[in-house]
Amino acid sequence: MEILSKNGGEEQTPNQPTQQKNKNASRTSVFVGVLLIILGGLWMMTNLNVLPTRIFDVVFSWQMLIIVLGLYLVVVRNYWVGGSLMAVGTLFLLTDYLHIHIPVVEIFLPAVVIAMGVGMILSRGK
Prior knowledge:
This protein is an all-alpha fold. It is built from five helices and no strands.
């Protein structure tokens, strides 16, 4: 004796968007967990004077927040936006803490415009 499902005997397959949401949720929880472990460890090592406070200042800066947000977007497979945020955060981190002069207006901004154009062309077929 065969039991028919509601849709006329056809097997139901899980929704593809639902599977993708589950994968992203899993990636997110792993990413946030690892991030919290690293941040807590760095904070503890700074409090125990194992690391200098300069490293603490860099790790807990707004530039690093932009980099971590970009890294998160890369983890959930938003490569262009995540990569762009990581590049911008790194640029500001280098100029503020390492005092490296990067000609932002002359080189970096035109490079961002070029990268956006390349990204639009490559993602056209998706």
